Amino acid sequence: MNIAKQKTIFFRLQTVSPVHIGSDEVYEPTAFVVDETKRQLISFDPADFINMLDSDALAEFSALCQKGTPQSLVGIYRFMNRHKNLVAGGHPVAVSDAFIKHFQDTMKLNGGKNILQNLNKYQIKRTAFHPHEDIPYIPGSSIKGSIRTAVLNYRNKGKSHPGYTGKNASSRLEQDLVGGSFATDPFRLVKVSDFVPVGEVRRRIVYGVNRKKKPSKFEARGPEQIFEVVEPGAVFFGSITIAEVPRNAGINKPVTKKELTDALLQFFGNEKKRGNNELKAVEIPPATLDLSANQFPVRIGFHSGAECVTVDGHRKIKIKGKGRDFKIEDHATTFWLAAESKNSANQQLRPFGWVTMEELSTEEVSGLQEQLEKERQARNLLQQEIFQQQQQEAHVRKEQLRAQQEKEKQKQVEAAAQAEKTEALRVSWQAMTEEEQDLAIVRGEEIAKSQASGIDIMQTIWPKLDSADQEHQKALAQAFMERWQQEGMWKVKKKKKAQWPRVQRIKTILGLN
């Protein structure tokens, strides 16, 4: 392709309602914690977290991960929540009070046949993000898909004839409208860049809830879903390049800039009006979309509505009935909407996916490119600072762990030595005669404190003065005298009615009276 023969148009994209672009990624339980005070989900690199764990916590965490059971997954949630003070440099995402309550209930799951079902309901789908910087972006493929749908509708003009049937009906319809397929498809000449964020992009965790378009006593059905979304007001920058048709390319219906912008304005403008009327009919507030002269609406991402991804006049939307029954309609009968909780009232719901796009002047492009470069440099600097901080914290933590391990090792050595000493004293004690044990107890020797600490000498040893032979009697008396001298109980007066006669008895035995 001749690169010189192409036109690139730069755009500013701004979110008007919550946007979720599928990324096939979820928030893994080992990579986030919930700060209930700040109402935030904080994601982080599990490797950084693991480096902060001490040996006991690491062993506990490894054991949980190795189990691989639904119960162990709940255990991981609990473990991460207990150690959330170790999380550093994480990326916060706002959450609602209902989400926090859901998280708390999930951590209380103890087992049973429904535990896996409950855990599946708690799966949090991530919106598209750059893996190295963890910042949201809008993939070019998502925008190109919306452009293609708009152009197909613009060219079809709502006609339902000729009709298309069979499993390849959609492909044949598209081929007729674009004038070819594969190599002759004009959209191969339309290149849409990824749209990168400009400034702060606020993210939030929301519930996807299903509501009927017409009031009914029966609720709409649908699986419980939890999404990370880009909040309204986020700004992104990107471009659309339209190449000229090469010679002999066989492309008969090329896409022009005018057709592209006219198609977007007409198709999504009409879909916005239709959707607004349907939402208002069931008291759900539509997204506010005030367009300037240079702006046009686009709807992207999950739950954009079946009408916004199909061709008017040829819509065949499957409507689920009872059991496995279904019917085909030319319109959807329910909305998927963003909610703070699974039970939010209609007035609190928001439609998914609405954005505006605005063509930029040369001066605006230069200004945004300069701003993006400054933000890129600031992110790199911040990441370096966070990395250095994490390295320092990890070093400090490792030193603390090393010191703790050395302390534990020393305790083990001392405990082993004490156990060896205690065993030696036990053996020695058992080798002693009863008389020797009595003397050791009265003298307060270490071996007696270790092996006979609970003995009351006045109740157990003192009475033996009456039955002991003369030699042992004197030895016991000498031991009592020395003990009482140390304890200040030897030189007592007569008014000490209990101790005085005991001292006199010892003096008599030792011949000191």
Plain-language structure description:
The chain is α+β, with helices and mostly antiparallel strands. The chain has helices at 46-51, 55-67, 70-82, 97-107, 115-121, 140-156, 169-178, 257-281, 362-431, 434-443, 446-451, 457-460, 470-487, 499-510; strands at 6-15, 22-26, 32-35, 40-43, 91-94, 124-127, 129-130, 135-136, 190-192, 196-198, 203-212, 225-230, 235-243, 295-299, 317-320, 326-329, 334-339, 350-351, 354-359. A hairpin with a 4-residue loop joins strand 7 and strand 8 (135-136). The chain is 43% helix and 18% strand.
Q: What is this structure's SSE topology?
A:
Layout: E1 6-15, E2 22-26, E3 32-35, E4 40-43, H1 46-51, H2 55-67, H3 70-82, E5 91-94, H4 97-107, H5 115-121, E6 124-127, E7 129-130, E8 135-136, H6 140-156, H7 169-178, E9 190-192, E10 196-198, E11 203-212, E12 225-230, E13 235-243, H8 257-281, E14 295-299, E15 317-320, E16 326-329, E17 334-339, E18 350-351, E19 354-359, H9 362-431, H10 434-443, H11 446-451, H12 457-460, H13 470-487, H14 499-510
Parallel strand pairs: 6-12
Antiparallel strand pairs: 1-13, 1-19, 2-6, 3-4, 4-5, 7-8, 9-13, 10-13, 11-12, 11-17, 14-19, 15-16, 17-18
Helix pairs in contact: 2-3, 6-8, 10-13, 13-14
